[in-house]
Amino acid sequence: MKARTASWQTVRAVTREEWRALLRSRVALSAVAVMLLLTLTATLVGFEHRHAIESERNRFQSLADQQWNAQPDRHPHRVSHYGHYVFRPLSPLAFFDFGVDPFTGHTLYLEGHRQNSANFSDAGQSSVLLRFGLLTPAFVLQTLVPLLIGFLAFGSIARERERGQLRFSIAQGISGRNLLLGKLLAHALVAGLLALPAFAGIAWLAFTSAGTAPAALLMLAGYTLYLLMWTCAAVAISAFSARARDALIVFTGLWIAVVILLPRMIPDLASHRIVLPTRIETDVAIHKDLAAIGDSHNPDDPYFRDFREKTLARYGVKKIEDLPVNYGGLLMAEGERMTSDLFDRYMQDGFQRQQAQSNWVHAFSPISPTIAVRRLSAALAGSDGDSYARFLNDAERYRYALIQALNRMHAEQVHYHNDKEQRISRNNWQALPRFSPDPRPVAAILGTHVLPSFAVLSGWLAALMLAIALLGKRLERRAA
């Protein structure tokens, strides 16, 4: 018990000395102050940006709902072509990591016989400056804080070796392991200080936003692992290098490769390996398939001529005029079913290709933990590609249900003999449900996004901790 107490006291003493050295360095203090201010600014800007976007989308959604309800009594088929707008909601944690949101559309126009693309991305509407990227807490913690950790810790061991202090410390009875643990603890506390504003924002949302706590806690745990990993890397490289200059060069090279090069090169390689068709190519292919499956507006079309005969047989009548429902509404419903199946097939094919690209990129996470933490971060913030695909799927299901409800009104409330001249009450479509997608539960991404990312980060951290243990023994041997 006394040995354990003495060991912990030694680690604390090393930690205090390292902190004193950092406090005596004006460069280190200035760098920490600037980075802390940057993290705080990014957090506040993220909250404000998300609040502004959410308020704007809620305002436009309310306006679209008012315009929908303000339609006069009219034919239901006219209502289906009048259409309706829906807007993609933002999760509370989107303030931390906007992911793909600035580059994907957030507004969908829903109408009959068509599946439109989401429009009005932030990057497409804003100045050129926005296209360089938003200042988010995720960007600061993923990219800038690890670099500063390296600049503060690269000389923690190597500089003492150059000055001869390392041999003196070990000669006094400080083990190499305790020395490295003390240095690691000192710089881990610095990393925690730099992340404090962003972590405080996440923790605040965990307590104030219903249902956010599980994702917020996982976000905190993931970034804690990521920053600890970089702290271990900086201390291990310093312990391995003969000179402080060498440690700085090695750490900077590692940071450039892992944080800058690989996360940008691998997606480009994925896009060349798995090619996505352009929107124009997809539209042309859909147009050809639509022409092949039949035209509901052509009474002589083979498919819909057969559909008419089957409908008459099902109701036991010989003429369309004798049907107890409006054949025009049945025809529109069948045409909508066929075209929606076609639209959905192309949409799901596009999602599968995008998922294949993402899987190919994520396969490189073991050599670039930045890719892993980005996957974790965007998924928990609800701003990744899968969240966007979920929005499109939810909107398409809502669109189909909306149009088919109007087609049922057409079939059941409008008479066939004077179809085009009739109107029905606007109360019918005012009573239809509004678009209100459920948020994606954390359980849905736990096995596909969260756990694989945690595995990568934990693996890196475990490997680096093992390296630090081995380097501690190496320091003792060389000092003997």
TrEMBL record:
<keyword id="KW-0472">Membrane</keyword>
<feature type="transmembrane region" description="Helical">
    <location>
        <begin position="179"/>
        <end position="207"/>
    </location>
</feature>
<keyword id="KW-1133">Transmembrane helix</keyword>
<keyword id="KW-0812">Transmembrane</keyword>
<feature type="transmembrane region" description="Helical">
    <location>
        <begin position="247"/>
        <end position="266"/>
    </location>
</feature>
<dbReference type="InterPro" id="IPR021913">
    <property type="entry name" value="DUF3526"/>
</dbReference>
<feature type="transmembrane region" description="Helical">
    <location>
        <begin position="27"/>
        <end position="47"/>
    </location>
</feature>
<dbReference type="Pfam" id="PF12679">
    <property type="entry name" value="ABC2_membrane_2"/>
</dbReference>
<feature type="transmembrane region" description="Helical">
    <location>
        <begin position="450"/>
        <end position="471"/>
    </location>
</feature>
<dbReference type="Pfam" id="PF12040">
    <property type="entry name" value="DUF3526"/>
</dbReference>
<feature type="transmembrane region" description="Helical">
    <location>
        <begin position="213"/>
        <end position="240"/>
    </location>
</feature>
<protein>
    <submittedName>
        <fullName>DUF3526 domain-containing protein</fullName>
    </submittedName>
</protein>
<feature type="transmembrane region" description="Helical">
    <location>
        <begin position="139"/>
        <end position="158"/>
    </location>
</feature>
